[in-house]
Amino acid sequence: MPRSSLPLRDTPQVYGRVTRALHWSIALLLLWQYMTMALKLGFGWSPRDSAVVGSHSMIGTLAFVLIVIRLIWAVMNAAHRPAHGGGLIGIAAKAGHGLLYLAMLIVPLAALLRAFGSGRGFAPFGFTLFPTREAPIEWMVNFANAIHGELGWVMGVLILGHVGMVGLHEAMWKDGTLAKMAGRKALR
Ligand code: HEM
C-alpha cells in the first residue's frame, strides 16, 4: 500500500500523518536541545559566542508550541488511537507516556517563566513574546531556575527509556510497535 494511504487522523492500528509529523519534528527539536546543552556543558560554548548554543531558547519555544499542539491532537484522537495494551506492561507504558508528556510541558514552561520573570525581554524568531521590564520577579526566576535544568535531564532519561522500550518491543516481542509511528503502511 502506498504511503499516501496513511490516514490523516490516528486509527486503532496506526498513528496518522499529523501525529507522526508532530512526533518526529518534536523528537528532532528535543535532540537539538540536548545537543546544544551538551556543547555548552561539555565544551564550555556559551550562548553569546555560539549561534548553535544560542538557539536553545528559540528552538525550545518552538518545541513547546508543537508539544501543546501534539497534546491537543492526542486528546482529539483519544477515542481511536493505538492502545498501549493491558497488564502490567500496558500500565507502565501509559504511566511512562504520561510522565513524558508532563515533563515536556513543565520543562519549557519553566524556562519561559524564567524568561518572563527575568524582565530582560524575550523575542524568539524576532517576535516579542515578553517585553523588557524594570525589575525581575525574583520568586519566578528562582522557582524556574530550580526546575528547568534538573527536570530537563530527568526528561532526557525518560526519553532514553522510551527509545529503549521501543527497541525491546522490536527485538523481543516483534509486535510492530515502531511501525505504528514509522511504518509506511496503514496496518490492518
Ligand atoms: C523542551 C524544551 C527544552 C529542553 C528539553 C531543555 C533542556 C535543557 C537542559 C537539559 C538544560 C541544561 C541544564 C544544566 O545546565 O544542567 C537547559 C538549560 C537552559 N535552558 Fe533549556 N530546555 C528546553 C527549553 C528551553 C526554553 C524554551 C528556554 C528559554 C525560553 C530554555 C532556556 C535555557 C537556558 C537559558 C539554559 C541555561 C541555564 C540553565 O541551566 O537553566 N530552555 N535546558
Automatic annotation (TrEMBL):
PANTHER family: CYTOCHROME B561 (PTHR30529), CYTOCHROME B561 BACTERIAL_NI-HYDROGENASE DOMAIN-CONTAINING PROTEIN (PTHR30529:SF7). The lineage of its organism: Bacteria, Pseudomonadati, Pseudomonadota, Alphaproteobacteria, Rhodobacterales. The chain crosses the membrane at residues 21-39, 59-79, 99-117, 151-171. It comes from the Bacteria. It comes from Pseudogemmobacter faecipullorum. This is Cytochrome b. Its cofactor is heme b. It is found in: Cell membrane. InterPro entries: Cyt_b561_bac/Ni-Hgenase, Cytochrome_b561_oxidase, Di-haem_cyt_TM. Residues 14-182 form the Cytochrome b561 bacterial/Ni-hydrogenase domain.
